[in-house]
Amino acid sequence: MPTLTSLGWNTEYETEFAPFRERGWIPARVAVEHRHTVLLFTESGELTGTTPGKFHYEAESHADLPRVGDWVAAEPLPGEPKAVIRHILTRRTKFSRKAAGEWDIEQVVAANIDLVFILQGLDHDFNLRRMERYLVLAWESGATPVIILNKADLCSCPEEYAALMEELAPGVPVHTMSVREGVGLDAVRTYLKEGVTVAFIGSSGVGKSTLVNALAGRELFKTAEVRADDSRGRHTTTRREMVMLPEGGVVIDTPGMRELQMWFADEGLDEAFADIDEIAAGCRFTDCTHTHEARCAVREALETGVLSDERYQSYIKLRREIEALEARRDSRALLEKKRKDKILHREIKRVNKINPKAR
Prior knowledge:
alpha/beta, six-stranded mixed beta sheet, five-stranded mixed beta barrel, 13 strands, single chain
């Protein structure tokens, strides 16, 4: 039976939870999301959690509903392995992306994580530009990123790829491994301590589920062979799921991401592109866009070869994606304010018409 500590509980959560404990509610952590319910891990075992209609009505978006990794205050139902979720505790960290589709909807991939393991394969999956996207969102999540280069057995020079990643992300740990041959597992295990939560992020077929199975010592998740021509998998992991490892540590396995669209990530962008942020300190204008301004230190670094064109173009592209997202959000907020003001003015007119003395 897990303890709260082994699930990742700490003094901050305990302080926030104190008022709910007085009501007879218990702390629980969301392990799996189903269509209408969630699986909760508690000290007394697993419970099926539901959220009342009011919870959904008051939520501004799907991101405000219980997601894998969330800590919640749950009210157990007597005599049943069920509980009603009454409150979500403050998320200390969260890895989010823009959900697929035209609408700007936040998708919380994992909440309250300490580490983000970003997996890439040393085969057709290896892509520096995609890794930059992952790093932006990983830094923005508030968790610490760790880069895992899997399938070293399929590569003749894994150390060269590791060097490229170390240059791309200075200070971020980079590990090469081969899950299939059991090489490199010990390095990964050093991160998996009691109470530490790790989210596994990466493309389909990169070996996330295979790695979790190897760390657990048994098959927790189904796996499948990848296609030889492009190294893509068949989405054997179809949902986000949290599991506890026998030697300690909590792992959240996630479905493969064929596309990773940006979410709001100002600080994450600066962290992932710390080299450009440092160069930008020498720009003439503090609001320099690094595209056309005079005495732009970033453009000068590009022209002199200090900064590569690929790195620069990737930075500009990601920043524009984030700025476009923010602009659309501001536009919707303005329209919503106008809508509410219109309703308020209409109500004031109605009241004044009924009761002129109320003016």
